[in-house]
Amino acid sequence: MKIPLLTVQIHYERDVVLSRQRARQLAGLLGFEHQDRVRIATTISELARNVFQYAKRGKIEFACDTGTGAMEVVISDQGPGIANLKEILRGEYVSETGMGVGLAGAKRLMDEFHIETAVGKGTTITISKSPGRGVPLTPKRVEEIVSELATNKTEDPFQEIQRQNQELLATMEELQKQQSELNQLNRELEDTNRGVMALYAELDEKADYLRRASEIKSRFLSNMTHEFRTPLNSILGLSRMLLDRTDGELTFDQEKQVFFIRRAASDLSELVNDLLDLSKVEAGKIVIRPSEFEIKDMFGALRGMLRPLLAHNSSISLVFDEAEGFPPLFTDESKVSQILRNFISNAIKFTEKGEVRISAALRPDNTIHLSVRDTGIGIANGDLLTIFEEFTQIEGPHQKKFKGTGLGLSLSKKLAEVLGGSVSVESELGVGSTFSVTLPLQYGGEVDAAYLSGFQRQLDPHRTPVLVVDDNPETLFIYESYLKNTPFQAIPVRSIRAAREALEAVRPIAIFLDVLLGHESSWAFLAELKRDKRTREIPVCVVTVVENEAKARQEGADAFHLKPIDREWLLSQLHSRVRPQRLLLIDDDEVSRYLFRSLLSATPFQMIEAVGGREGIETALEERPDVIFLDLDMPGMNGFETRRKLQEDSRTRHIPIVFYTANLQADDKLEEFEGVVGILSKDLSSREVAQAKLMTLMGEIKARIEAKVGAASSSSAEPSLP
User: Fold this and answer.
1) pTM above 0.85?
2) Which of 215, 236, 363, 517 is deepest in the core (most CB within 10 A)?
3) 721 — pLDDT class (breaks 50, 70, 90)
4) Are 661 and 569 in contact (CB under 8 A)?
5) Residues 6+ positions from 47 with CB-CB distance below 8 Å
């Protein structure tokens, strides 16, 4: 309940000093802290001086709210009014006698500030400030405050000036202390930044060194493996001739020696072949030759190729499950066969009895799952994470019996990744192991084509498409992650052919293009985009590891960025291509406004704030936002009254309104409120959920507006009846 406490008439200049003294005295009685007392006294003094200077006469009415303990003050006069109020409140006005910052300063210092003025009819300013403790005032305490105000004498003006100077000195000392702390913090930040920059430089140097070392290693392995192959083939051929007795019989010991030589050469040849394949994969020089083939045909070839490996052990059965009814695969058959050969060879090596079974299964995501299951010795759980590493072999009696290179599984993993798939293993000691490879039915560009054939159904109508052309699946995943919970949807393609098909079906807001796409000429595609009148207006952003911005700009690129892609740069490029929608939030609560502002951090929306209903209506008339988010529970003019006034004014009637409130009961009666198109709860469980809800709501509003515009256009185009 609001209770009047004191009224001070402003007739003479000394009344300005009196109003300052009374304000400080009342703030102390209401329990305000020292800094708040100074703020209140300064505010009242400035407003009283304005009254005396411009209106000559006026009054100041002090009151308190018994529920919250807040001080409420009304300053009124019958003077000439304020003609340039908005300019003054924005801090842009400089008066002839001063700085013109009294009203703007008072608004910042108080919790609530409302002003009503009219030229020739005077001005009324209502302000309030709460002590922050939220303790109600009892009737007895109110009586004590009134009695204290009536009996307590005020200081003379000279003493008041002295007190004001002391307060000013204390404030300046506090500001100087804060400035000193800020300077110290800035110095620490500068030192930290220098350290971080030095660390980044060192990391870049290390990364460059490792890259060069990797390139040298790949070249060395490639050259050396080729050099090794010639003598090894000679050794294998000559040993074969000796064992075949081409030039005569061998003694028992000679045959044994030649056999050892041949086995060592064979092991070394296998190592050389695996090293060569690995170096090709790591250097990105491995050639994929996709072709269409049937799984049953590949199984048949593997059966004939690997059956001789069982000659030394008749207690093992090599079983290929039936592979009828599977769709044909379009991928590199030799690479798939190589992966399975490695799996099967290992299974036969480490299985003493039982079976090695090869099977295939079709997955619902258009992939094929090929597995090799054995009944061998199995692998311990602790070794499952390391067996796909290079030169890794598990210690055990079977490993001593069957020596290998330790590269077969590592090579299989890399080949599967090159083909767009993955490998996995399940095993149990003493029971057996199952090695599997999962591959897409269509390799490379065909993957993109298969995806694009149905991508129209996957497009979100509430999001703007962005075409991403990159053959690296990790990079495409990064783009999709960066654009998650934004108004933009990534359309990923991995070839130029797929990009052309996408552009036939959808017009993206921008194209992000990697100029290194396997063996395709992306530079030529960039030039093609800029020549074609259908695509020349679409911005193309080149994102690549090739540091050649000049060439990209010459070919017509609108932007250039070196990998790795930066999320802030990506979103800034996209946001700069769209006209941002402006959202007006009318809410008296500062925390709610801050939280709402944080929801818009990764969106193309611009936020305008208004504190309270009256300011919200004025802002809506001045700014004309695209959508208004309106809090329902506000002091003074609540959300329902604000909505009604917005609907009554023809200038704001067309602006969609969304209730932004914790009062979910309003959703049940939403159809009763004209102009209200939705509700956004303040009580959503997480920022991600709230942001997703906001994006969905804005999409629905956009679709509704577009439908209304389309209907209006159709009706206006209809011929009139005679």
Assistant:
1) no
2) 517
3) very low
4) no
5) 60, 75, 102, 103, 106, 125, 127
Q: Is 689 helix (H, G, I), strand (E, B) or coil?
A: helix
> How far, in Å, CA of 126 to CA of 113, rounded?
6
- Name beta bridge partners: 207: none
The pLDDT-based confidence of 540 (bands split at 50, 70, 90) is very high
The SS3 call for residue 551 is: helix
Closest CA to 368 of 405, 333, 392, 341: 333
> 616 in the Ramachandran plot: left (φ > 0), alpha (ψ -120 to 50) or beta?
alpha
> Residue 298: exposed, middle, or buried by beta-carbon count in 10 A (0-12, 13-18, 19+)?
buried
Contact by Cβ (8 Å): 170, 30? no
Q: How far is CA 718 from the centre of its chain?
A: 46
Retrieve residue 63's tokens: 């009151």
Span 257-281, pLDDT tens digits: 888 787 777 767 666 666 666 655 5
Q: Would you tell me the crossing angle of helices 252-283 and 157-243 to the nearest 10 degrees?
A: 150
* Residue 193 CB-half CA count within 13 A: 6
CA distance 663 to 679: 10
The residue among 343, 355, 300 whose CA lies nearest residue 322 is: 300
Strand bridging mode 657-661 / 627-630: parallel
Q: Quick one: pLDDT band at residue 586, thresholds 50, 70, 90?
A: very high
Radius of gyration of the chain measured on its C-alpha atoms: 40
My answer on whether omega of the bond before 625 falls inside 30° of 0, hence cis, is no
- Given a cut of 60, whether residue 155 has pLDDT beyond it is no
Tokens of 380: 């311990």
What are the phi and psi torsion angles at 522 (to 5°)? -75, -30
Q: Taking the CA of residue 7 as centre, how many other CA atoms within 13 Å lie in the half-sphere pointing to its CB?
A: 7
Provide the total of helices (H) and of strands (E) in the chain, helices listed first. Answer: 22, 24
Q: Which residues contact 182 (CB under 8 A, 6 or more apart)?
A: none
Instruction: List CB contacts of 438: < 8 A, sequence separation 6 or more.
Output: 363, 367, 368, 369, 370, 416, 421, 422, 423, 424
Nearest to 508 by CA among 541, 471, 470: 541
Under 8 Å between Cβ of 525 and 513: yes
Residue in the structure block whose two tokens are 């001086």: 49
Work out whether the CA dihedral 471, 477, 478, 483 comes out positive or negative: positive
Tokens of 644: 């009604």
DSSP state of 247: T
Residue by residue, what is the 3-state secondary structure of 337-400?
HHHHHHHHHHHHHCCCCEEEEEEEEEECCCEEEEEEEECCCCCCHHHCCCCCCCCCCCCCHHHH
User: Mind listing the domains of the chain with CATH numbers?
Assistant: 2-154 (3.30.565.10), 291-440 (3.30.565.10), 445-575 (3.40.50.2300), 582-717 (3.40.50.2300)
pLDDT in tens, 42-99: 889 889 988 888 888 999 999 998 888 889 999 999 988 888 888 887 777 766 654 4
pLDDT per residue as tens digits for the range 413-451 = 888 888 888 889 888 888 889 999 999 988 864 333 333
Q: 326: which 2 tokens?
A: 């599977």
Burial 652-691 (b: 16+ CB within 10 A, else e): beebbbbbbbeeeebeeeeeebebbbbbbbbeeeeeeebb
Other C-beta atoms closer than 10 Å to the C-beta of 402 total 12
Structure tokens at 314: 């008749």
